[in-house]
């Protein structure tokens, strides 16, 4: 096993990785831009190192390959975990780690390069007989896009070839919208991914978004850890995730899982990844859309229903363990009950004046929140993941009900959040039936309406909490975290 890992990320995922490393006896080194000097991840890790410069773009600090490699070497690290986002899917970063003698905890650079090119991976899937949605190759101009859309038929979806995470995507309903949408998509792709290449696919509405968690080792073995339903989305960003997917016909599920394994084996996949599909349950069909070669935000719910720590597995596989060494043969992997994840985001600026997490059986919170946190506006606004599992009935509705109760008990004040919307979404009949579609939130805008109504627990909490110090005492939250000192920034 490794001695020390540099965590090339921030927020809740950096904390998650540090805790997994600690469980394996691996020391962890957190990095932080000046905007994150108070970040909770800097306190959870064994040590923390500053990167970036005061007044500089804090996002770029986490994208600075040279600075991250220098930090890892200076701290005596022997491996790097990229988390998700930032450089997690960057082939050049993985290669730079290898060149510096650092093990990259993730797929090989060649695999990252393949799955970073959405048009290339579509071709691979098609060659393997995996269904894909009708689409085009790379488009050089709006005229090319117009011709391709005419052949495929409207509506279409323009996508960044190097994209992911719901970014660099634009729906186009008619030819009148195409030129402007193409220019915007191309520009967004260039800014977000450094590559303005776009392609288009037929836009198919009212499907389910189902993804398969995979693990591969260096001996060519691949297993799946079943699937997750990520249909609860807002503007192509996941909001609610459920594992496993409910109400999927057995043979359809088997085909989806088999195609995920087929793609992983064909690409010589090593470490953790997720193969994503759009699924039409009524017609019994599924379509490959992409593979994310990294740990997912929603890996948590797979962990809850399988009992397998995916981040620990990442470390072990990167250190040379086989799936069999880890006891992860396909017939040994099973699910029990259901798990639901709700992503809690900051919907505006502020400082947390109250923060207390819910607790109880079947409740897990992965968070970087604490009393006094002012979420930096430059980064993704998600700062809490609430994960709840079903009770002894092992039903989806029990997992959803437990999540709603936990949301109701969550004490957050000082920063506006989406707690109200999450409760509304989880109360929707299609979600409770396990049959939500990707269009749920676009078709039901009332689910996204804000509300000044507080949970009974929060109202009572605020009534009796008279000061910042009282909040700290009542909640047991971390407070007054100082700026890290004695740590030099690496430019």
Notable features of this structure?
491 residues, alpha+beta, Rossmann fold, Dna Ligase, domain 1, D-amino Acid Aminotransferase, Chain A, domain 1, 3 domains, five-stranded parallel β-sheet, globular
The separation of the N and C termini measures: 30 Å
Q: What is the number of independent domains?
A: 3
Number of helices: 18
Which CATH C-level class of the largest domain is it?
Alpha Beta
Describe the global form: globular
CATH superfamily of the largest domain: ATP-grasp fold, B domain
Reported for the largest beta sheet, the result is: 8 strands, antiparallel
CATH architecture of the largest domain: 2-Layer Sandwich
Task: Determine the structural class based on helices, strands and strand pairing.
Answer: alpha+beta
Strand order within the widest sheet? 13-12-9-10-11-14-17-16
Helix content, binned percent: 25-40%
Radius of gyration: 22 Å
- Stretches where pLDDT falls below 50 for ≥5 residues? 451-491
User: How much beta, percentage-wise?
Assistant: 15-25%
Counting DSSP E segments of at least 2 residues, the number of strands comes to: 18
Give the integer mean of the pLDDT values: 91
- CATH topology category name of the largest domain: D-amino Acid Aminotransferase, Chain A, domain 1
Describe this structure in words.
This protein is α+β, with helices and mostly antiparallel strands. The chain has 3 domains: 4-105, Rossmann fold (3-Layer(aba) Sandwich), CATH 3.40.50; 134-202, ATP-grasp fold, A domain (Dna Ligase, domain 1, 2-Layer Sandwich), CATH 3.30.1490; 208-448, ATP-grasp fold, B domain (D-amino Acid Aminotransferase, Chain A, domain 1). Helix content is 34%, strand content 22%. The two termini are 30 Å apart. The chain has 18 helices and 18 strands. The protein is globular. Residues 451-491 have low confidence and may be disordered. A hairpin with a 4-residue loop joins strand 12 (271-280) and strand 13. Strands 13-12-9-10-11-14-17-16 form an 8-stranded antiparallel β-sheet, with helices on both faces. A 5-stranded parallel β-sheet has the order 3-2-1-4-5, with helices on both faces.
